[in-house]
Amino acid sequence: MTPRDYLPPTARHYETAVAQLPRLDGRTVAITGSTSGTGAVLARTAGRLGARLLLLNRPSDRAASSAAELERNGIDATQIDCDLQSFDSVRAGAAAALACTPAGIDVLCNNAGVMGLPDRATVDGCDIQMQTNHLSHFLLTSLLWPGLRRAASERGEARVVNHSSGARHGAALQARYLEHTGGQLGGDGFPGLAKWRRYQQSKLANLLFSYALSDRMPAEDRARGMKALAAHPGPTNSGLQAKTANAGGMRLLDRYILARTLKVAHAVEDGALGIIRASFDPDAQDGQFYGPAGRGEPGPAVLLPSERDAGAEKLLWDVSLHTTGVDDYWPRPDRPQSIERGQ
């Protein structure tokens, strides 16, 4: 089985779960990677519940048409150009997002991701998977913190939600994957396992970032109701499988990994329920983790046990600060945005 001949299953849990969520009128939800997969489901769901949407996507015809389609369905959606493979683009996108949200940002869902791509460096010299999946989200969160803080001050809550994966299981986090080592980590030769190790490291980083963010959040922001949460989709055909295949260089191992996922995958609507609950469930608390309970099996999104590793969380935080160039993650009242090296 390949992504091209895959027949999507029917959603089993989505409508029941969404029917239990509150209205989001007057709230602003920012989402990365909203043109397809779980991000598109999250956008449609937030809009259906009355939220205003900020869609942070790489500039493309697909991004523009996706925002236009939401608008045609009566949803307030604004496309913000933000290419996660460029720190400069992230900075520009964050500035644009803050400029159009004077009332603040209630939810930032760091959803976008790539999977199983060849060993390639971004314009910033980082691994393409790690920068797209984690490092640029780390930077984006720091830059949008004033908007999140404003929403929490005015409406009593704001959330950052990071999208991990069942692929997080495996090797412990290693600093070299977070550094300026793009194109030097391997993954294109036989048997092709290293590309999947790089993906595993990036999805582990997503979860560790949520815990590290929660622990390091200033007490005054926690008192405002600011929260950091994580989710995973379980086996889902979110569109990443097809992108991996289209990237070329598919080896037997790649085909096996993708086919195994698609064989048990649930509907993308059900796969989005982890980030939907983490973003909108009124009972969700800071530091929590949502997704299917099985290890590699589909199912409803439930509250999962924490997976803490203090040493790995510190490593992730320290190296991510250095690689992204952020000196001061938490903006103080006299400093409206995080301060970056050389600026």
TrEMBL record:
User: This protein's superkingdom?
Assistant: Bacteria
Answer yes or no on keyword Oxidoreductase. yes
Q: Which InterPro entries match?
A: NAD(P)-bd_dom_sf (IPR036291), SDR_fam (IPR002347)
Q: Which UniProt keywords apply?
A: Oxidoreductase
Alphabetized Gene3D superfamilies for the sequence? NAD(P)-binding Rossmann-like Domain
Instruction: Give one Pfam hit by family name.
Output: adh_short
Q: Which family does it belong to?
A: Belongs to the short-chain dehydrogenases/reductases (SDR) family.
Name of the protein in question: Oxidoreductase
| Species this protein is from | Microbacterium sediminicola
Q: Taxonomically, what lineage is the organism?
A: Bacteria, Bacillati, Actinomycetota, Actinomycetes, Micrococcales
